Every structure is written in structure tokens, then in C-alpha cells.
Amino acid sequence: MSTLSELMLSQDRSPADVEWLHLLVADGQLLADLAFADIVLWVPTAEGGFVAVSHSRPSSAATLFYRDFVGQPIKPEWRQQVTEAFETGQIVDTAAPDWYEETPTRVRAVPVVRREAPSGGPVSEHVIAVLTRHSNLSEARTPSRQELTFNQCANDLFAMIASGDFPDLSAPSMPRRGAPRASDGLIRLDVDGVVTFASPNALSAFNRLGFQGELEGESLAEVTTGLLGNKLHVDESLPLVVTGRAPWRTDLEARGVTVTLRTIPIRFRGERVGAAVFVRDVTEVRHQEQELITKDATIREIHHRVKNNLQTVASLLRIQARRAHSDDSRDALNQAMRRVAAIAVVHDTLSEGLDQIVDFDDVFDRVLLLVAEVASSHNTKVAPVKTGKFGMLPSAYATPLALALTELVTNAVEHGLAGRADGKVEIQAKRKDESLRIRVRDNGVGLPEGKVGQGLGTQIVRTLIQGELSGTIDWHTLEGEGTEVTIEVPLFWLNRN
User: Fold this and answer.
1) Model pLDDT for residues 178-217, shown as the tens digit of each residue
2) Is residue 286 part of a domain?
3) Which end of the chain is more exposed for a tag (fewer CB within 10 A), N or C?
4) Sign of the alpha-carbon torsion through 300, 301, 307, 310
5) In a domain, 303, yes or no
6) Domains: count for the chain
7) Residues 138 and 188 both lie in one domain
8) Is the pTM for the entire model greater than 0.90?
9) What does the pLDDT look like over 402-438, one tens digit per residue?
10) Higher model confidence: residue 60 or residue 142?
11) Which residues, at least 6 apart from 117, have a Cβ–Cβ distance to it below 8 Å?
12) What confidence tens digit (pLDDT) does each residue in 100-136 have?
């Protein structure tokens, strides 16, 4: 659980308050960049003080605080101002510069109010937190038009935070939230969707899309329509985003360039008065995503073809076994066929998903179906029973483990339960954080004296468990009758990266 959630829930705050603050913290970096200031979020404590749960540093200016405030109580010089904002529900500014380590700063305390429902629903009865803006006053210079616009957007958003209009509950969840940053490009729209300001980076992004004029004074919707031309497939959210009416995110594609747009409607006393549109060229990002999708599809196709080839090999071995004249040759070919079929099951499972991690319980349930074929050839009735959960395993573990367990269950049927009508094989799986322990038990005749480890199947199992999985394996005879094989595999893959 995060620090924010821990502290909020410890103060008997509702889950809705916690969720609202999570949404606000997600845009903390955006607020810091627009305000050219450090942004700290404070929540009240049971002792009557405040504790920091979030600290966002600006990428557009130098930070004032080199140490993170998260988890620290509020400093005495800010406590009165933050308390006043919390109790009155009004934005409180410092009357005089506040000095922090010989640096003049200006502190603004903004109350955080939660709206109960989207589209103008009621707001919470009480302020749930306070956000402070810490601006550096030591850099005395004339601000550029871009800086002034950024600060104006920040002030608008702070006012919306105090009125419960930001964050917006009608905004879709990820991945349609958040990606563009303020420094990537900013377009300011009026209430009619006309551009009143476009940062150089935003103008450059639209130039790459094919727009050659000046954005200011133009309708962003009309500019976008001209860039799309006769394109048939367009994101349905695009008109709402470029007109500044919805707090959504969408992609705009033209001339092989992809630009993502995120809109935040600016509201004053609940009425929309304009919008801030954040722009980012994501052409290379989308290209990399497409490459990953293509590689995933290629991997799935490879697994599918390997599975088909393995099944073909298994079928050829089955045909050859039926034509074999000696029992030894027939048994050897049948064993080879089952081993190949077990590997094919793993590849079949891998071909169905995008990742290289499989549900081994599903894989092993399919592997157990091979036991029926083995039992029928030895006039045996076997009831395989699986208890416990193997869990998710990477393909590097799944293939050798499936093959090893196939060998163990097959050996139990062939050598321990041959000719019996009450045969039973039990597979117990116990998953821990550090290891996977498996027991394979049967009620057969038990192990012959001095014969363990001499057969090909036993050697295969030992090689797979010890060599491929770095595990341990032990055979022993149960009291009364039957054999138990214990396998323990360390799960090193969990601790990788």
C-alpha cells in the first residue's frame, strides 16, 4: 500500500477521498511544470498537524527542495497558512516572501475539494487535503509569453482544485490519461475552440503533421480536419478533444506522424471558459509499440508452428510403433511419442498468449490426458489426482517440468501399476515464494532394490530437474506399498531484474 493510501485510511478518510488524491497526484508533475514550482500535497493527521504524501519537482525550473518531503510533518513556517486554507476552503497566499535556506520563495496553499460525481455533482462537505506551491523568487527576470501562459494555466487549475473541478471524474482511466507533459507542447483554447496560444513545441508537432501556418487565431478543430483529409477511420473522441469539451486523450495521425493530444477543460464556477491542450509527438513510441506487437505475433506463430511440427513427429512415432515387430522397439517408440507430445502441449499453450509465462496447472491437466493412453496399453485403470497449485511459470521452467512429470507419471503406470484395476497416482504441488515442491505418489509395487537411476526415463528426469531447473529429486518407497518422488525447484526467476 502506498504512503498516500496508508495515511489517508489511517485518518478514517473514505476510499473515495483516497482515489481522488491518487488522481490528483497523477497530475502532480503537470502542475509543477506549469507553475515552475515545487508542488507538495499535505493531508491532516489525527494530532491536528499535516503530513506530506506527495512531492512533485518541476522539470521546467530548478527545484527548491533537494530532499523529498513525503512522510514528513509540515514545517512550522507553513503550518499556519496550510491550516487556514484547510479550515476556510480558500486559496491562501503569503503576504511577504518566505525564506527557505536563504532563498526567497512564495508559497500558495490550495485546498483540495472532492466532487462527489462528474458533470457538476455536489462537492465534499470538508476539505480533504491541502496542496502547496513553492515558487523561487530569486530569479528576477522578465518572464516570456510562454511562461506567463504556463502560469495562467497553473492558476486556473489551482482554482479548479479548490472548487472540486480538477481532477475530472469524467476523464477515462489509463491509458487515455496523462501522457503529454507541459514541456512537450501546450495549446490554449478559448470557449469556442479557437487557439489563443501555441507553444513552439506544439507548433512544431503540427508542422510535422503537415500544417504550415500559424495556429494562433485558428480553430483547432478546423486545422485538425484539414490534416486528416479524406481519412475514413478517426478516433471518435478526437472532435471532443480538439474543441476542448472533454478531458480525454487521443491520437492524431497524418503523413506518417503520430501526435497525442490531451485536453483539460478550464472551468470557472462550473462553467467551461476554455481549455488547455497538451501535445506530444509520439511517432517513435507508436513505432516501437507496433514492433513489439509484431514480435509478439511472430513469437506466437513460431510456437504454433513448433507445436504442429512436434505433433507431426509424435504421429510419425506412433505410426512407426504400430509397425514395430519387437515389444522393446514398440515401447521405446511409444515413450518417445509421449515425450514429444508433452513438449507440444507446452508450445500449444505458449502460442495462445502474448507473454512467455503460462499457467502450469492448465498445462499439466492436459499432460495428464496422456496417462490414459499409457494405462490402456498396460491393461491398467489409473485415477490420476492433482492437488495444490503450480501457479504461473515461465516457458523456461514449464517445458522441462512438464516433460519430467510426464516421465514420472508414465513410469508409475508402466512399472508400478501395470495390470492393476485400482491404480492411483497422486501429484501434490505446494507453491512458496522461494520454491516449488512437488510430490508424485502411487500405490504400486514400490521401487526394486538397487534399480533407481538405471532406466532411461529416470536419467531424463534427473537431467531435467537437476540440470535444467537447478532443483533436487528424491525417490523412496512408502511404508506398505507404493513409491513417492519428491521434487523441489527453486524459483530464481521471481527475483530477476
Assistant:
1) 468 898 999 999 999 999 999 999 999 999 999 999 999 9
2) no
3) C
4) negative
5) no
6) 3
7) no
8) no
9) 888 888 887 777 766 666 666 778 889 999 888 899 9
10) 60
11) 169
12) 777 888 999 999 999 887 766 788 878 999 999 999 8
Q: Is residue 401 part of a domain?
A: yes
How many angstroms separate the most distant Cα atoms in the chain?
102
Taking alpha carbons only, the member of 306, 313, 363 closest to residue 338 is 313
Q: Whole domain around residue 82: which residue ranges?
A: 3-163
Q: Can you tell me the distance from the alpha carbon of 149 to that of 195, in angstroms, rounded to the nearest whole number? A: 13
Q: Residue-wise over 52-71: b if at least 16 C-beta within 10 A, else e?
A: bbbbbbbebbeebeeeebbe
Q: Is the peptide bond before 76 cis (omega within 30 degrees of 0)?
A: no
Residue 109, H or E segment: strand 103-112
Q: Of 231, 257, 281, which residue is a domain's last? A: 281
| CATH number, position 67 | 3.30.450.280
Q: How far is CA 208 from CA 211, 219, 220, 228, 262, in A?
A: 7, 18, 16, 13, 18
Instruction: List all residues 6 or more positions away from 431 whose beta carbon is below 8 Å from its beta carbon.
Output: 388, 389, 390, 391
Which residues have C-beta within 8 Å of that of residue 64, sequence separation ≥ 6?
A: 37, 38, 100, 103, 105, 134, 136
Per the DSSP assignment, residues forming a β-bridge with 244 are: none
Q: What's the CATH number where 438 sits?
A: 3.30.565.10
> Which grid cell is 413?
503406470
Is residue 168 in some structural domain?
Answer: no
Reported as type and span, the H/E element at residue 428 is strand 423-431
